[in-house]
Design goal:
By secondary structure, the chain is an alpha/beta fold. It is built from six helices and five strands; from the N terminus they run βαβαβαααβαβ.
Length: 161
């Protein structure tokens, strides 16, 4: 793996989302959502089956790593802070310390970079880590990218709409 890119759903339409992946030369797409669907027609192209088909037709492999999705309990830690500060999920610009620590303990403490490499396959060169939040600092995908960078030295780029 030469490079990791991260990408969220919010702020993209179908054309710009897949265009960003192609421009970054992504060959492997890693979905790290617990629930692989989005409500409404705006982001219907990112519901699991449509997303997988869209990636397949563009020659991008799809990998689902549920073990990197934050649990409901860990997400509740962030939801509590968001409620206290009056910030909605789509307007959030950062993660709370409670969420970060909870996510690291729940998902990353026992996760090995070798497990990630096995899951994506040896042929993967540019890997996209995906979740829904617009900015990486507001999403667990940034924590996954930091973890992989620290353990594998892999370059990280964040794709933004």
């Amino acid at each position: 793996m030469k490079k990791i890119v991260t990408i969220g759903a919010y702020g993209y339409d179908e054309e710009s989302f897949f265009g960003a992946l192609k421009s970054a030369n992504v060959d492997t797409f890693v979905d790290t959502r617990l629930r692989r669907g989005l409500r409404g027609s705006t982001y219907a192209f990112l519901n699991s089956l449509k997303l997988q088909e869209g990636l397949r037709t563009r020659g991008i492999r799809y990998v689902y790593l549920k073990e990197l999705a934050p649990s409901k309990e860990t997400r509740a830690l962030q939801k509590k802070v968001d409620a206290e500060t009056g910030v909605t999920k789509r307007k959030r610009t950062g993660l709370s310390e409670a969420f970060i620590e909870g996510y690291k303990q729940q998902c990353l403490a026992d996760y090995s970079p070798e497990s990630f490499q096995r899951a994506i396959g040896e042929e993967s060169e540019v890997v996209a880590i995906f979740c829904v939040e617009k900015t990486p600092d507001a999403c667990h995908r940034s924590l996954v990218a930091i973890f992989l960078h620290e353990h594998l030295g892999t370059e990280v780029q964040h794709l933004l709409p």
